[in-house]
Design goal:
alpha+beta; 7-stranded mixed beta sheet; globular; 11 helices
Length: 346
């Protein structure tokens, strides 16, 4: 049941996905409506529900991504808070690990020059993390995280308690105007006990890695829908001229195609057929649609919404930062390599 006034973002209008069967789903949408870019209202809802979140690739992935897009259309910071939590649930389930009741999760697998996190076993066989991990979103707000670290056998992921005394969140380094209340700075680990998840290399090789990557694109898509709603509302306030109609038509066309791409990817995920080439294709398409709407909407509406509508101005800034998880031409180069290797579908 959707909260009153919340408009669902539909991926495929011709075949809407089934509603998401998750008890706190409606409460989280309500929390997003009032969070104004802050994660705390959503984290309180998550902490109050002990059950494991829904996992993509196990049936009704379209419903899950449709819900994520709906959340993102309300507030991108809310989606940025929830998406890694759901990704962690998927990772733990695929690895056969239990879910901790009332926990809140992040996933920290990025790398950066001159920052290295290592994992070694002590004399009693317990794994410990030492070093610095970059881009750790909400590390000071969450209870647990899945963290990648370098071992003698290669990169491996571990589950850690972020409340451990050896976890030091580096404060004062997040100056972003987009996702301003979702700090993603570095965390220093000193002899932090860690539970290994899967073997070395499993995180990137697991079937769910590509599925999780498309889940991020569903959040971008929801942000783009939010921008389009501002464009649509602007056209409703006065008689639209031909340019205004053109912008409306183009935006609709682009969003329709992106939604269908996500719906198709959801079906492939549930059929266990979504691979990394699929993920790069869908992510690249959705990112391009978002970039076009980020350019189009201010051109069509003028500066008014950017200076007079707090939610819209925040959405523009948030989406610009969130999209930096896409690597642009580098991701297209990776896709091109896979197309060349496969012989090309055309």
């Amino acid at each position: 049941m959707l909260p009153e006034g919340v408009q669902t973002v539909v991926l495929n209008p011709a075949a809407p996905a089934d509603p998401l069967d998750w008890e706190p789903a409606g409460q989280l949408l309500t929390a997003a409506e009032h969070c104004q870019g802050h994660p705390e209202p959503l984290l309180r809802v998550l902490s109050a529900h002990p059950g494991i979140p829904p996992v993509p690739g196990t049936g009704n992935t379209a419903g899950l991504w449709q819900w994520l897009a709906t959340l993102a259309a309300i507030d991108l910071a809310a989606a940025r808070t929830l998406e890694p939590h759901l990704d962690a649930a998927a990772i733990l389930r695929q690895a056969g690990h239990e879910w901790a009741a009332g926990s809140t999760w992040g996933v920290y697998a990025a790398e950066a020059p001159h920052q290295l996190l290592t994992a070694e076993q002590d004399g009693e066989g317990t794994w410990q993390l030492n070093g610095t991990k970059p881009w750790c979103s909400l590390a000071g707000n969450l209870s647990r995280a899945i963290v990648s670290a370098h071992t003698a056998q290669g990169r491996r992921i571990f589950a850690v308690q972020l409340s451990d005394a050896g976890v030091e969140v580096q404060q004062g380094t997040w100056h972003s105007r987009g996702l301003a209340h979702i700090p993603s700075g570095s965390v220093h680990f000193t002899a932090v006990p860690a539970q290994p998840i899967g073997a070395a290399g499993w995180y990137l090789d697991r079937p769910g890695f590509a599925v999780g990557a498309v889940g991020v694109a569903a959040c971008w898509f929801g942000g783009a829908v939010g921008l389009y709603r501002t464009l649509f509302a602007s056209a409703q306030r006065r008689e639209p001229d031909q340019l205004a109609l053109s912008w409306l038509g183009e935006g609709h066309r682009l969003l329709h195609g992106a939604g269908l791409a996500l719906a198709n990817a959801a079906g492939r995920a549930d059929a266990q057929r979504l691979d990394w080439a699929d993920a790069l294709t869908v992510r690249g398409h959705v990112a391009a649609v978002c970039q076009r709407l980020l350019a189009m909407v201010p051109e069509a509406t003028g500066p008014g919404p950017l200076v007079g509508d707090d939610a819209h101005a925040r959405r523009v800034a948030d989406l610009g930062i969130y999209l930096r998880q896409h690597h642009g031409a580098r991701d297209d180069a990776a896709l091109g390599g896979k197309v060349l290797q496969a012989g090309g579908p055309w």
